[in-house]
């Protein structure tokens, strides 16, 4: 029967990005009373779940980017002998469990996962694409839920929003006294989790002198640059190419 395990030997070549996405999160989060369009506790649970993945999964990602209920994790060294079936199952199951632990919700939640093979010079392009999606999601979410708060039913609000460009929604919100450009950076640009090296100072009692060494820690960044800028490009190359 072993030969009936289809795709069990399907493998990918590193580097890859694994993108997880919440499945039916809207229903579960609504039941649990999370705020719309953005909830700081939800965003914190997402970031903390990813940080825990870095620390406890033994899978060694080098960088992750998250917004809303999706996250993209960068791997330059793959576990499980590069088996896609394993990657696609272990990563989302770990994050589903971690999110449930951090959030304390009673409603079951799940992530799906896809494997995205990339070349070394495509990481910036990919992250720029996802950050653009974060911005589109940010603008449309504020527009949609503003209409809902004004008493418009969901179907009508969706109809009003259909086909509107980001610039039009931005102007619609500005007319209502909300400048979307002033909203927190994590809502507009997402959150990153990554490994970084930092120096620590010690003391050698035998030599009676101070010493310098390097450690690695997991950091969350809630104030990201635009990945489409030179600053953003340097940021990504610095953290994704971490040795």
From TrEMBL:
User: Which residue windows are coiled coil?
Assistant: none
User: What biological-process GO terms show up in the record?
Assistant: tRNA modification
What family classification does the UniProt entry report for this protein? Belongs to the tRNA(His) guanylyltransferase family.
Q: Which domain of life is it from?
A: Archaea
Which EC numbers characterise this protein's activity in its record? 2.7.7.79
Query: Any idea which GO molecular function terms this record carries?
Result: GTP binding; magnesium ion binding; tRNA guanylyltransferase activity
Q: Give the taxonomic lineage as stored in the record.
A: Archaea, Methanobacteriati, Methanobacteriota, Stenosarchaea group, Methanomicrobia
* tRNAHis guanylyltransferase catalytic domain sequence ranges: 1-117
Protein's UniProt name:
tRNA(His) guanylyltransferase
Cofactor entry:
Mg(2+)
Thg1 C-terminal domain residues: 123-214
Q: Which UniProt keywords apply?
A: GTP-binding, Magnesium, Metal-binding, Nucleotide-binding, Nucleotidyltransferase, Transferase, tRNA processing
């Amino acid at each position: 029967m072993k030969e009936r395990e289809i795709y069990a030997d399907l493998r990918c070549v590193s580097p890859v990005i694994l993108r997880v996405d919440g499945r039916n999160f809207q229903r579960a989060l609504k039941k649990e009373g999370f705020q719309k369009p953005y909830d700081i506790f939800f965003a914190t649970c997402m970031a903390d779940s990813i940080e825990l993945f870095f620390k406890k999964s033994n899978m060694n990602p080098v960088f992750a980017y998250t917004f809303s209920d999706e996250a993209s994790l960068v791997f330059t060294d793959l576990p499980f002998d590069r088996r896609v079936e394993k990657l696609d199952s272990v990563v989302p199951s770990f994050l589903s469990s971690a999110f449930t632990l951090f959030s304390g919700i009673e409603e079951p939640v799940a992530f799906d996962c896809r494997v995205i093979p990339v070349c070394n010079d495509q990481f910036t392009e990919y992250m720029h694409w996802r950050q653009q999606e974060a911005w589109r999601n940010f603008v449309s979410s504020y527009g949609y839920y503003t209409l809902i708060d004004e008493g418009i039913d969901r179907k009508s609000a969706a109809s009003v929003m259909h086909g509107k460009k980001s610039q039009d929604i931005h102007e619609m919100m500005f007319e209502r006294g909300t400048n979307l450009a002033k909203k927190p950076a994590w809502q507009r640009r997402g959150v990153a989790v990554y490994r970084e090296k930092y120096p620590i100072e010690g003391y050698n009692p035998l030599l009676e002198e101070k010493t310098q060494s390097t450690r690695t820690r997991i950091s969350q960044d809630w104030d990201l640059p635009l990945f489409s800028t030179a600053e953003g490009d340097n940021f990504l190359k610095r953290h994704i190419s971490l040795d």
